[in-house]
């Protein structure tokens, strides 16, 4: 399949049309969507209009934008005006937002064509997309296995060659982990780099929207298109979008890459082997590897599983059957709210809402939520110290390759442990990406994680490109 | 090892969160939540008294908008998405008791 | 009794606190709403800079410390709360540690004056149309997200009169800052009172919160009722439960809304969608420099222009300042006119007809007062001229002429007084012997005889001349 950059070039030059590329995308989608359950909704009419508009602009000789005519899949926790946005939950089944997420507007302004909404773990809570109220998504590389989560649908869309690009969201690893399990490039940007306006919130201080793609260059182009200050988001960094695609081939000569023990210890043998091989590849490309230990990272899981549910329990309170979405009627409004939420939320969502409510409640705040916020500071300080000795850090993205359905659903903690390598960067607010490198059991892909200090996306892409190139891509 | 939280704790929290649990769910969640909280003990036992909690990781402060009126949503569109709307308002079953 | 007041005021911004919807009272339901104030999934708040400015003005007017602050979420489920949490301020409010001096000099401490967003409004249909017994409730979110400042006093108030004075003075201050319009009847200002009782010297008793007080009169009545209720309860051997009570104006009693034992756990935590607020010293200085004079200052400025001021005149000054009429009085003072008469006419005749003030020019007022002071008009005639000016504007001299308010000649006055003296020898004797009050008797008779055209001062002068 052509990369996004190639498609945009061809559309802009007239070698192909946006409408033709869109038709190809829908063909690929129809071929495997029933088997894989990637898309919850296809906005055929809307997409065809947008594609026709792109073609008209090209015909008028306009420079449409860096994503001219590129089909893109959108995770279904991003609001798109007038089309169903469900967060893979019964409680929002059928709801159509009256507004666009900022990132959607920016995509369309750059010429991209959103084709439909992809499946996720309900309200982005999960690491396998098994928590969707509308059935799990299957990994295109091996449909008996999970694609990862929570952005499983968006990962599968690109891995199955349905679209060259997709958008996901990452709160504790929900872009990077599915990217690793599906053999894709997935990036979680610096907190505040991409506007959260229109992203249905899970954990407000951790959520970020980011790109899925096959190539590093595509990822950089997509990210710089959606990034930059948004007055509708108070937490967005007051800076314009950084230049990223221009630096993808900067290389890693002279860079110090920190190999962090806590970011691969305990992972499967094949994963550890890939991490080591990646270090060798970066050395060959001119970087130096520094062995580091950041023991504070081990506290990340506990802090995350208190902060994220706490914020989520509050963010999800608005789903009460009053103004939108599901309503289960009752004699009085309190009973109605309770009946609605009980019927509308799945087990994992309920679990986290209760965990979060408990962590915030009177008497427990200091011990749990308050303490977790201090652990955040501890982590941020620990990362700062590490970045005195290294420009970037390297480790595994996930402990294993894609696992089988049902393998980790018995005990919630087992599933949570999937995020142990990805969580710390969300807590620190720093950027990180996953880039495919090597394979493990059953020839399934392994993802290498690269981490950097705030606003270091350009360096991360350059290092990822070095690995991509060493891996023969 | 007994769970750090009791069934009563879980039932209370479910009420606060406006969730109804079955007896089975109550037992299951008590167990599962207890397991997660136990894992958090490594964190809650630390002395972090000299650390301040982090607000925005990059220290953003004083973000404002100008006091300018912007167009509101079209009411019909909004009420169309409502489960029940009457007389231009959102209708709900009767409210018992005043707001806190 | 021990009373603490919580007063909420809406701020006079053009748009809401966290979104660009209009901050406007009386619009058609749900026409000033957007994803943010409706709490739609994916929406985010952005803080209105002008609301912060107005909040600072209020803090400064109440002598508070302005400090860096944060916003917190107060989590509770209720249909008029569109996110099922309210964005408010908790342990780090923008304003704290201030005070308000009542006109009688009592100082009431102000614990805090923090920012928060308002809720929507619900009405109830079916049943009796009141909350209890309603079938459905209907919610309008126009008011949801309107900026509020909540002002919390210390438990320093010791009577319902003091509470009323506090509320009235606070209202005057809020209007003076330009932050609020103080319209109790529109709900842009609301009172809650926390009332407890104790025997003198003993620690504070359990308090009850009274809500739904939307006039100064209800405030005073409700506090009196509640204090008495608690006293009677205690004297009968009962204990006061900590609860929220609702004031019923029609029945004149408070009743239980909700017992606070099962208190809501608001699970306050810092609002992650907003960043910290730390107004610069330069901004604070600008706000302070531009702060208009407060009612207390305006009252004392006006009092200073009245020589040998009496308590009754001080009361009149309160009315004049409260209604913002001091420019009329100041104009008279500036022209060297009779300030005492001016204050009285303002506090009475003008105050009675504030809607029509547009018709009366300051010059016309000054001229009228001059005519009254100079004896050209009697007090009664002056009031009639003012009434006419308020109704239809114009010029006092022409109005006086049209009404036939000619001065009664000195001769006419003289013979009339002489006649009255003859007809009432007993009263005249008592007056001559020193009972000055009887001058009023003679003035009254003169008024009757001349249909109010007689000038009281002239009558008195004639009496004295004949003593």
Properties at a glance:
heterotrimer; B: 100 residues; mainly alpha; 4 helices; 37% helix; flat; C: alpha+beta; Arc Repressor Mutant, subunit A; 3-stranded antiparallel sheet; 15 helices; 15 strands
Query: Helicity level of chain B, as a percent range?
Result: 25-40%
Oligomeric organization of the protein chains: heterotrimer
Element-by-element helix/strand order of chain C = EEHEEEEEEEEHEEHEEEHHHHHHHHHHHH
Fraction of residues in β-strands of chain C:
15-25%
Please report which band the strand proportion of chain B falls in: under 5%, 5-15%, 15-25%, 25-35%, 35-45% or over 45%: 5-15%
Main sheet specs of chain B: 2 strands, antiparallel
What is the terminal-to-terminal distance of chain C? 57 Å
The SS-based structural class of chain B is mainly alpha
The whole-angstrom Rg of chain B is: 23 Å
DSSP summary, beta strand count of chain B: 3
**Category by helix and strand content of chain C:** alpha+beta
Any idea what the shape of chain C is?
elongated
How many domains, in number, for the residues of chain B? 1
Please write the string of helix (H) and strand (E) elements of chain B.
Answer: HHHEHEE
> Percent of residues of chain C in helical segments?
25-40%
Number of individual domains of chain C: 3
- Our count of helices of chain B gives 4
Overall form of chain B: flat
Question: What would you note in describing this structure?
Answer:
The complex is a heterotrimer of chains A (473), B (100) and C (467). Chain A is α/β, with parallel strands linked by helices and 473 residues long. Chain A has a domain at 4-246: Amidase signature (AS) enzymes (Alpha-Beta Complex). In chain A, 39% of the residues lie in helices and 13% in strands. Chain A has 15 helices and eleven strands. Chain A has helices at residues 4-13, 18-36, 44-59, 102-109, 152-159, 176-182, 216-226, 269-284, 300-315, 333-344, 347-360, 366-389, 412-416, 423-428, 457-470, and strands spanning 39-42, 71-75, 113-118, 165-170, 185-188, 208-213, 256-260, 288-292, 392-396, 432-439, 445-451. An eleven-stranded mixed beta sheet of chain A has the order 1-3-2-4-6-5-10-11-9-7-8, sandwiched between helices. Chain A is globular, with a radius of gyration of 21 Å. The two termini of chain A are 13 Å apart. Chain B has 100 residues and is mainly alpha-helical. Chain B has one domain. Chain B has four helices and three strands. Chain B has a two-stranded antiparallel ribbon with strand order 2-3. The two termini of chain B are 39 Å apart. With 467 residues, chain C is α+β, with helices and mostly antiparallel strands. Chain C has three domains: 2-289, no CATH class; 295-402; 410-466, Orthogonal Bundle (Arc Repressor Mutant, subunit A). Chain C has helices at 49-61, 160-177, 216-235, 281-289, 295-303, 311-322, 326-334, 339-350, 362-373, 379-392, 396-402, 410-423, 425-432, 438-449, 456-465, and strands at residues 2-10, 47-48, 65-66, 72-75, 85-88, 95-101, 107-117, 121-125, 136-140, 147-153, 189-196, 208-213, 243-248, 253-259, 269-270. In chain C, helix 14 packs across helix 15 (456-465). Chain C is elongated. The two termini of chain C are 57 Å apart. The mean pLDDT of chain C is 91. At the A-B interface, helix 9, helix 10, helix 11, helix 12 and helix 13 of A face helix 1, helix 2, helix 3 and strand 3 of B. Strand 3 (89-93) of chain B pairs antiparallel with strand 9 of chain C, so a sheet runs across the interface.
């Amino acid at each position: 399949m052509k990369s996004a950059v190639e498609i945009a070039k061809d559309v802009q030059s007239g070698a192909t049309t946006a409408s033709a590329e869109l038709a190809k995308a829908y063909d690929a989608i129809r071929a495997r969507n029933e088997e894989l359950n990637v898309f919850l909704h296809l906005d055929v009419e809307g997409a065809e209009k947008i594609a026709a508009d792109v073609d008209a602009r090209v015909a008028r000789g306009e420079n449409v934008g860096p994503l001219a005519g590129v089909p893109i899949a959108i995770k279904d926790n991003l609001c798109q005006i007038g089309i169903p946005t469900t967060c893979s939950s019964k409680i929002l089944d059928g709801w159509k937002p009256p507004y666009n997420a900022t990132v959607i507007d920016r995509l369309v302004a750059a010429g991209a064509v959103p084709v439909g909404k992809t499946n996720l773990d309900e309200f982005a809570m999960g690491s396998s997309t098994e928590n969707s109220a509308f059935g799990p998504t299957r990994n295109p590389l091996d449909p008996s296995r999970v694609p990862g989560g929570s952005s499983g649908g968006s990962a599968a869309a690109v891995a199955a060659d349905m679209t060259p690009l997709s958008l996901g969201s990452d709160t504790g690893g929900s872009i990077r982990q599915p990217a690793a399990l599906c053999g894709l490039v997935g990036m979680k940007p610096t907190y505040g780099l991409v506007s959260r306006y229109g992203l249905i919130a899970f954990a407000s201080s951790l959520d970020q929207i980011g790109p899925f793609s096959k190539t590093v260059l595509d990822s950089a182009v997509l990210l710089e298109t959606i990034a930059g200050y948004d007055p509708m988001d108070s937490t967005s960094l007051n800076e314009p979008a950084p230049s990223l695609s221009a630096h993808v081939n900067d290389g890693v000569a002279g860079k110090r890459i920190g190999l962090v023990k806590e970011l691969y210890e305990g992972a499967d043998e094949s994963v550890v082997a890939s991490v080591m091989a990646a270090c060798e590849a970066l050395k060959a490309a001119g970087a130096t590897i520094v062995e580091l230990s950041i023991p504070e990272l081990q506290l990340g899981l506990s802090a995350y599983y208190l902060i994220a549910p706490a914020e989520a329990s509050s963010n999800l309170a608005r789903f009460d059957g009053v103004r939108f979405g599901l309503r289960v009627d009752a004699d009085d409004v309190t009973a109605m709210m309770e009946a609605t939420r009980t019927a509308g939320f799945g087990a994992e969502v309920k679990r986290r809402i209760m965990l979060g409510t408990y962590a915030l409640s009177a008497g427990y705040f200091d011990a749990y939520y308050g303490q977790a916020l201090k652990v955040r500071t501890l982590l941020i300080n620990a990362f700062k110290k590490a970045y005195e000795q290294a420009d970037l850090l390297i480790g595994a993205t996930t402990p294993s390759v894609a696992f089988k359905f049902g393998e980790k659903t018995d005990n919630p903690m087992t599933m949570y442990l999937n995020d142990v390598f990805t969580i710390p960067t969300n807590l620190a607010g720093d950027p990180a990406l996953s880039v495919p490198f090597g394979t493990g059991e059953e020839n399934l892909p392994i993802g290498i994680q690269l981490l950097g200090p705030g606003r270091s996306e350009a360096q991360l892409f350059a290092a990822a490109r070095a690995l991509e190139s060493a891996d023969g891509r | 090892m007994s769970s750090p939280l009791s069934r009563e704790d879980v039932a209370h929290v479910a009420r606060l969160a406006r969730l109804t649990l079955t007896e089975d769910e109550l037992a299951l969640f008590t167990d599962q939540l207890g397991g997660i909280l136990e894992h958090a003990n490594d964190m809650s036992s630390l002395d972090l008294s000299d650390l301040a909690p982090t607000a925005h990781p990059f220290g953003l402060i004083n973000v404002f908008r100008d006091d300018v009126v912007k167009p509101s949503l079209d009411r019909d569109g909004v009420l169309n998405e409502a489960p029940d709307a009457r007389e231009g308002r959102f209708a709900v079953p009767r409210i018992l008791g005043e707001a806190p | 009794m021990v009373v603490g007041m919580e007063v909420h005021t809406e701020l006079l911004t053009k748009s809401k606190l966290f979104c660009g919807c209009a901050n406007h009272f009386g619009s058609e339901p749900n026409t000033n709403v957007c994803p943010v104030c409706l709490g739609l999934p994916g929406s985010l708040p952005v803080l209105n800079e002008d609301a912060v400015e107005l909040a600072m003005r209020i803090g400064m007017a109440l002598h508070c410390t302005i400090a860096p602050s944060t916003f917190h979420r107060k989590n509770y489920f209720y249909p008029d709360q569109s996110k099922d949490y309210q964005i408010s301020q908790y342990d780090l409010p923008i304003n704290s540690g201030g005070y308000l001096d009542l006109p009688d000099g009592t100082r009431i401490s102000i614990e805090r004056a923090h920012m928060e967003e308002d809720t929507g409004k619900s009405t109830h249909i079916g049943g009796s149309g009141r909350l209890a017994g309603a079938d459905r409730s209907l919610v309008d979110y126009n008011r949801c997200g309107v900026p509020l400042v909540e002002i919390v006093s210390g438990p320093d108030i010791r009577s319902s009169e003091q509470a009323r004075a506090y509320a009235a003075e606070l209202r005057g201050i809020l209007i003076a800052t330009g932050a609020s319009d103080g319209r109790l009847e529109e709900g842009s200002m609301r009172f809650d009172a926390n009332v407890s009782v104790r025997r003198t010297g003993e620690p504070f008793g359990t308090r009850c919160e009274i809500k739904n007080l939307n006039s100064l009169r209800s405030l005073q009545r409700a506090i009196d009722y509640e204090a008495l209720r608690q006293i009677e309860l205690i004297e009968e051997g009962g204990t006061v439960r900590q609860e929220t009570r609702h004031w019923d104006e029609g029945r004149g009693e408070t009743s239980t809304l909700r017992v606070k034992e099962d208190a809501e756990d608001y699970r306050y935590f810092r609002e992650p969608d907003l960043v910290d607020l730390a107004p610069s010293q330069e901004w604070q200085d600008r706000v302070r420099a531009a702060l208009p004079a407060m009612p207390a200052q305006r009252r004392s400025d006006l009092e200073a222009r009245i020589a040998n001021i009496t308590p009754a005149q001080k009361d009149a000054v309160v009315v004049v300042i409260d209604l913002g009429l001091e420019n009329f009085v100041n104009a008279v003072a500036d022209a060297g006119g009779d300030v005492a008469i001016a204050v009285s006419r303002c506090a009475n005749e003008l105050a009675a007809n504030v809607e029509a003030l547009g018709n009366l020019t300051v010059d016309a007022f000054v001229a009228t007062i001059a005519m009254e002071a100079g004896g050209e008009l009697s007090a009664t005639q002056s009031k009639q001229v003012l009434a006419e000016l308020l109704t239809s504007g114009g010029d006092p001299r022409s109005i006086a002429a049209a009404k036939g308010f000619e001065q009664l000649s000195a001769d006419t006055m003289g013979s009339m007084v002489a006649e009255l003296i003859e007809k009432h020898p007993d009263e005249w004797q008592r007056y001559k012997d020193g009972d000055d009050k009887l001058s009023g008797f003679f003035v009254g008779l003169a008024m009757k005889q001349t249909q109010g055209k007689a000038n009281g001062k002239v009558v008195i002068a004639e009496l004295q001349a004949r003593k």
